[in-house]
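Structure (tokenized):
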């Protein structure tokens, strides 16, 4: 029984990775990107406030987390940095609140 456990778990992990990569979003080729598209700094800002916009979008507001009209790699990199700093700041803040 243990002889099959390692290959089976490896196969499961590979299948899970393939499934996750298959769900990755792709750019819509039909979308028209205006010249004033969101760049790195807007991506950074949208990443920093992602939790706030997520909660507002759940409450029914007509707000999206991610800017559709963006410059691509620059916006994505800024969003990634912003959301990382936002999560780190949120965890730090909650840690300080609940440690007292």
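Design, position by position:
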């Amino acid at each position: 029984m243990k002889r099959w456990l390692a290959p089976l778990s490896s196969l499961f992990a590979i299948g899970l990775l393939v499934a996750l990569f298959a769900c990755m979003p792709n750019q819509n080729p039909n979308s028209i990107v205006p010249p004033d598209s969101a760049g790195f700094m807007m991506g950074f800002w949208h990443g920093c406030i992602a939790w706030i916009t997520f909660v507002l979008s759940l409450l029914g507001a007509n707000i999206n987390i991610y800017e559709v009209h963006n410059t691509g790699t620059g916006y994505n990199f800024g969003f990634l940095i912003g959301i990382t700093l936002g999560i780190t700041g949120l965890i730090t803040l909650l840690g300080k609140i609940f440690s007292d």
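Reviewer-requested clarification: The mean pLDDT is 76. Residues 36-99 form one domain.
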